[in-house]
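User: Reviewer 2 asked us to show a designed sequence for the structure in our supplementary figure. I'm pasting the structure tokens here. Could you produce the per-position amino acids so we can include them in the response letter?
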């Protein structure tokens, strides 16, 4: 059980009740205040980075193409390269901000695989620490307080301003 990564069992992400796609909508916000509320760390031309509102650990981020696509094979070559470019920046940023001992990085494709938003593909980046798996079920059941998320946002944001 020590290496259990809960996202594979079904993810909880910032889904909207009205059926709108938050991975499309959140990066569209204009003001830095709105972007902060939506936890958007980076909005590039082809790739976005958003914090998960239901994190498995501090610094659980979602990287997604700007385009609303469901499948990896729908990524253009440019989007594929950019996704990994941003992944490199993301793991570096989390390492500088939180100094984790490991990472889980993965994509749930389709409802059967546990995807929370199956219409818009996204990559989970979850920092890990030795012994943190005991802590995680607690985080998923008790809704993480917004202050905690905003604090994490402030810590990570400067690293994404240099991309
Ligand atoms: Zn979308």
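Assistant: Here is a per-position design you can include in the supplement:
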């Amino acid at each position: 059980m020590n290496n259990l990564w809960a996202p594979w069992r079904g993810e909880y992400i910032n889904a909207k009740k009205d059926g709108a796609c938050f991975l499309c909508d959140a990066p569209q916000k204009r003001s830095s205040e709105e972007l902060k509320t939506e936890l958007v760390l980076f909005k590039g031309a082809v790739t976005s980075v958003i914090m998960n509102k239901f994190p498995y650990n501090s610094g659980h981020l979602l990287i997604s193409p700007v385009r609303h696509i469901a499948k990896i094979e729908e990524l253009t070559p440019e989007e594929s390269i950019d996704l990994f470019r941003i992944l490199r920046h993301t793991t570096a940023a989390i390492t500088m901000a939180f100094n984790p001992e490991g990472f889980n990085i993965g994509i749930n494709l389709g409802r059967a695989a546990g995807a929370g938003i199956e219409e818009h593909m996204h990559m989970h980046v979850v920092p890990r620490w030795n012994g943190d798996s005991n802590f995680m079920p607690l985080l998923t059941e008790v809704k993480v307080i917004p202050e905690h998320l905003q604090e994490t946002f402030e810590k990570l944001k400067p690293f994404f301003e240099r991309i």
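For the response letter, you might also mention the following. The pocket of zinc ion is lined by residues 21, 23-24, 68, 120 (CB under 6 Å). The chain has five helices and five strands.
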